[in-house]
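step=encode ok
step=design start
structure_in=
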């Protein structure tokens, strides 16, 4: 879609312009301005180069969210200062998540010390109304406002979905920033509803959207708070703000990447390939690299141990899934000879379910292999092990859990309306 033609200006805000795309009626182009503002626009300065930094920051953050499976409006970058997104009717609410108490929270809650930790993160919502300084709104106020956007009404169900999604976005970015030892203190996002009536994380996410404290130290803050705190704005301290934003944009290259971890699916017989392919399909969807091998612990013991040595020696983080029916020797033999995690996933046939499962469960003492029968479950178990050291896999698992939550909610709404 390099052929897009800029259409008319839909809206110009404080920091960006939104254009229609003449040949893509459901999309729009968001162009950043070289301007920094705070206090609902009361403080505002030109800052050359800010648009490019902000756009690149936004592209990297939304790239990470899209890759994890979060539903967002972001489509793709369009030059250094713009990106293409799904055109939305915007929900006029700022959705805030806080891990630690600071800033306006402290003023509204005297007595709570700065740094008070919220587990789970605290969620707050503010109605977007610059003239009245974005008043805080409850869920009930949002529901009672009865917003109708792109053919859908914002009811309790939609509010629940947006709150869960807000939490997911925060947690994904918090885990990602932890890779660079940076604490995500709080952040805000916005939602829009696209032409299909789908609720999407929209607007932009950049250094204006969060508080980010390297090493968890407020004095090292790298976000827009530095600008908000300036009593006397000089060219020199504007440059400091810009350098901080640039630093964040560069760090995001590390934050948005991680090696693709492996799951090796070993089958005792090629007749079990279909079961293994099913595990591989789910593992790949969760961001794992899946490899299939054939080896029998009973009939090819030496080969089995040699294959194991290959993965032991690879230096990679590998989870092994052993697929063997009847008497499962494969999983226990692997497990007794490695510290890599081993998951048994015996392919079950109706004539031998009890015996097949039993040989995977009742293993000799000294072995720590686990058993997960269903192929999707085995892939999920492998991904959960990898998620402990890989934030991208963690993000996909979390996004999948949200999508399960949304599907159940939608099904409930459908039946409720019958
Ligand atoms: N995908 C989208 N489709 C349509 N409009 C969008 C989209 N993403 C963001 N917008 C809107 O673009 C407008 C301009 O953005 P900008 O952030 O500059 O506005 P602003 O002056 O900060 O006002 P606001 O307080 O509403 O954010 C905002 O009203 C925002 O809601
Ligand atoms: Mg805005």
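sequence_out=
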């Amino acid at each position: 879609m390099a052929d897009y033609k800029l259409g008319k200006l839909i809206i110009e805000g404080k920091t960006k312009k939104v254009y229609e795309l003449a040949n893509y009626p459901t999309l729009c182009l968001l162009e950043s301005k070289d301007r920094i503002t705070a206090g609902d626009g009361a403080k505002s300065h030109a800052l050359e180069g800010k648009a490019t930094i902000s756009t690149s920051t936004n592209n990297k953050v939304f790239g990470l969210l899209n890759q994890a499976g979060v539903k967002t409006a972001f489509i793709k970058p369009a030059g250094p200062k713009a990106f293409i997104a799904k055109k939305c009717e915007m929900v006029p609410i700022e959705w805030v998540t806080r891990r630690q108490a600071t800033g306006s929270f402290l003023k509204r809650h005297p007595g709570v010390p700065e740094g008070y930790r919220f587990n789970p993160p605290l969620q707050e919502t503010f109605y977007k109304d610059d003239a009245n300084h974005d008043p805080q709104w409850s869920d009930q106020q949002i529901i009672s406002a009865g917003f109708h956007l792109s053919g859908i009404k914002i009811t309790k169900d939609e509010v629940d979905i947006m709150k869960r999604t807000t939490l997911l976005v925060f947690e994904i970015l918090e885990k990602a920033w932890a890779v660079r030892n940076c604490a995500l203190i709080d952040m805000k996002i916005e939602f829009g509803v696209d032409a299909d009536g789908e609720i999407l994380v929209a607007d932009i996410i950049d250094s204006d959207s969060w508080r980010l404290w390297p090493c968890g130290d407020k004095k090292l803050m790298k976000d827009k708070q530095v600008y908000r705190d300036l009593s006397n704005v000089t060219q020199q301290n504007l440059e400091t703000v810009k350098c901080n934003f640039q630093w964040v944009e560069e760090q995001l290259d590390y934050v948005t990447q991680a090696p693709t971890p492996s799951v090796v699916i070993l089958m005792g017989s090629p007749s079990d390939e279909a079961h293994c392919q099913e595990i591989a399909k789910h593992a790949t969807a969760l961001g794992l690299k899946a490899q299939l091998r054939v080896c029998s612990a009973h009939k090819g013991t030496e080969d089995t141990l040699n294959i194991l040595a290959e993965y032991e020696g690879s230096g990679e983080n590998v989870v092994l899934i052993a697929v063997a029916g009847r008497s499962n020797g494969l999983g226990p033999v692997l497990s007794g000879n490695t510290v890599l995690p081993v998951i048994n996933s015996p392919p079950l046939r109706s004539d031998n379910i009890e015996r097949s499962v039993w040989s995977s469960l009742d293993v000799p003492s000294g072995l720590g292999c686990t058993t997960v029968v269903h192929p999707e479950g085995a892939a999920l178990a492998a991904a959960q092990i990898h998620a402990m050291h890989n934030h991208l896999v963690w993000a996909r698992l979390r996004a999948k859990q949200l999508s399960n939550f949304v599907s159940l909610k939608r099904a409930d709404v459908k039946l409720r309306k019958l």
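step=design ok
step=annotate ok -> Residues 13 surround magnesium ion (ligand 2) (CB under 6 Å).
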